[in-house]
Amino acid sequence: MAPVPRRANVFVRIGQHWADYLYIAPALLVMLLVIAYPVWFTIQLSFEKTSPSLSMAEQTFTGFDNYLTILRSQSFRDVTVNTIIWTVFSTLFSFLIGLGCALSLNRAFLGRGVLRAILLVPYVISAVAASYVWRWLYHSDFGVIGAFTTQMGWTKGPINFLDNTTTVLPSLILVNVWKEFSFAMIMLLAGLQTVPDQLLRAAQVDGANTWDRFWHVTFPHLRGVTMVTVLLLLVGNLNSFIIPWVMTGGGPAGASDIWITSIYNIAFGRVRFGIAAAYSVILFIVMMLLGYFYVRALAGKDEGGVVE
Amino acid sequence: MTSIPVERPVTRKPVDWWRWAGRLFLLLMLLFTVLPMLWMVITSLKTQFAAFQYPPQWWPAAPTLDNYVRLLLPTSPTGQEFLQYMWNSIFVSSCSTILGVVVAVPAAYAFSRFRFPGRQFLFFAVLLRNMFPAVIFLMPLFLLMRWLGLVNNLASLILTYLTFGLPLSIWLLKGFYDNIPIQLEQAARIDGATRFKAFLLIVMPLSSPGIIATAIYSFILAWNEYVFALTLLNSKEKLTLPIGLQHFFTEYATDWPGLMAASFIMSVPVVVMFLILQKYFVRALTEGAVKH
Fold first, then answer.
1. Nearest CB to A125: which of B117, B198, B271?
2. Cβ atoms A249, B102 nearer than 8 A
3. Which CATH number fits domain A63-298: 1.20.1250.20, 1.10.3720.10, 3.30.360.10, 1.10.565.10?
4. What is the spatial distance between Cα B146 and Cα A203, in angstroms, rounded to a whole number?
5. Which residues of B touch A151 (CB under 8 A)?
6. pLDDT for A20-73, tens place per residue?
7. Does the predicted model carry a pTM greater than 0.95?
8. What ipTM was predicted for this assembly?
9. Shortest Cα–Cα distance, A12 to chain B (Å)
């Protein structure tokens, strides 16, 4: 008998707040249609064998077959290694370069605002345009990078960046870092504003050098921002599709194939939705783990007021 | 009167190596950022012939605006196509942005101000959406659109762009509402305004910068979107700009100067919007991650 009042309480509270739901109802409706339904449907698809014609009638339930097929395949392991290299190095370099820029920009000098704006441009332009620009820079015959190194006498001739299984992934990571390091920069720059000036000056008076001030005063203050920035970079990089897809399509010989490009290929190249869906669910689980840390990093920062 | 020369102690400030290292680093990063874009512009001013020279012309021997004229002249066949792509992009981005913001504004306000059961859960559900790759939504939405008969229809893009536009808008707008003092509404309520009236007449005008920033941000995302457009569109006259660029690749020789010009034109609106609203944009990006 005891738990009953507690349960009623929720309904009473929902009843009291019924008008609140009117505000979120349209958003909720849209999200159910374009987010909740697709997630549910993907999970469902992952247990089905789908026919290439994509007709629903020809689907058969196969349990965990799709998952086993993926986990047993050699290509999954290769693609996973690529994905880890891609994600870790993109995140690491973007973060370190972003941090360097943020620290260097965190003092007043002439042209600071202009410089910050210029550094942010790669982040806002289309990844498709950026990919084409870099494809042209990397071009194996007429690419300007190869031409430059040849002219300087560093290499004997143009370099084959993208058609070479060892250089392709680092070349793509460079493009990715070019595109996103300023995101880390802007986040950390905002974080640096929260470091109290008095503390830095006090440390200086006490004889702390630049490095000590950074390590013992500035960096501890940046911990929260660092956490959020690194998580967002990790998630963004795990989800990135455009740069590898437009620049190499995952090639040559799968050397730049990462999870997302691989899923896309399975789904829309080979039209095997069931396998691709199972693949998506695996990715989804990894994301949820990262998401858990993201929510934890953000929690506690959510203090709004109440209008009754 | 002779002045006594005062011996001033020579105080040479020690060279701040960190500061110089920072300047050097910034210079390198500036070059890293600018040179690729500069090469895009230089290439776009070349003829096809000049672009395919080795060693390259570091500066075009005969700069020409032909590539731009060809793309933007409605009478040329390339221009017709390109302007159609551009119009499609503008149409899709605007519609999905407007739709997203209209739906997001009340929701974000409710998340910021009201304490209804399930609020935390729903809000984190919104947040988590940003972690899912588009591909998870791609297959079901493709099947849904096929079933609705909307494949190869721009409406399908407007709808699917809400998958990322809406959660993002709610998240950003909530941040802006959190920063508007609640006392303003409380005062209005005491003066007899209904809750909805207080929202409409007090909060809305104050949050218009936030709404504009959010709209711009979601417009830029929609403008740059590639995966959904790649999957849901297939006829030539329906393509948006990011997909349309593929048409510069032909079997034998890619029109690189044309492609660079098209990339440049495609980037201009985004960069201009960003520069004008830089302050809001930066705030929108960092909102939530940093306690102010």
1. B271
2. no
3. 1.10.3720.10
4. 64
5. 55
6. 888 888 888 888 888 888 888 888 888 988 777 666 666 778 888 889 888 888
7. no
8. 0.87
9. 10
